[in-house]
Amino acid sequence: MDLGLFLTFLAACGAAATTGAMFQPGAWYEGLNKPAWVPPRWAFPVVWTSLYILMSYAATRVALTSSHPQALAFWALQIALNTLWTPVFFGLRRMRAAMVVMVFLWLAVAATTWAFFQADIMAGWLFVPYLVWATIAGALNLSVIRLNPGSA
Asked: Is the pLDDT of residue 21 over 90?
């Protein structure tokens, strides 16, 4: 593995993680109605840290093949959308706009997963947990909108 390449991808994930630190859920989010199945608050940093490491390692594996530029373009798109979602939802409190971002994020994660499977089977599998988590996050975003129609 190329440690410098891995750290570069991890740094890109750091930008997304920074928005999570800057735009905390806070009292506004705590006051919203949420579904019973919402993950506990402590799970989010644990899951995201794990996912960012897996995403970075997967991207490193694909980058080392150097024959799948579209896969890395999808990776860049998904991390940009990942970085955008938190400020839109928690910063601007625009749940519907965040849902639009989430739809495009989910599509980008799905495309990245598919492209990574084409490039490197292990990289594809490393991305599957992120696709699952993006699905859960999208369902949560939609549920919060539905449970708080006047706040969306």
From this structure: no
Tens digit of pLDDT for each residue in 52-64? 999 999 999 999 9
Contact 10, 57 (CB under 8 A): no
d(CA 98, CA 131): 17
Q: With H, G, I as helix, E, B as strand and everything else as coil, classify residue 126.
A: helix
CB 102 within 8 A of CB 141: yes
Q: Within a 10 A sphere around the Cβ of 140, how many other Cβ atoms?
A: 16
Q: Tell me the pLDDT tens digit for each residue of 70-111.
A: 999 999 999 999 999 999 999 999 999 999 999 999 999 999
- What's the CA gap between 142 and 93, in Å, rounded? 14
Instruction: Write the CB contacts of 41 (distance below 8 Å, at least 6 apart in sequence).
Output: 25
H or E segment and range at residue 67: none
Q: Which pTM does this prediction carry?
A: 0.93
Helix or strand holding residue 77 (H, E):
helix 69-86
CA-CA distance, 135 to 47, in Å (whole number)?
A: 14
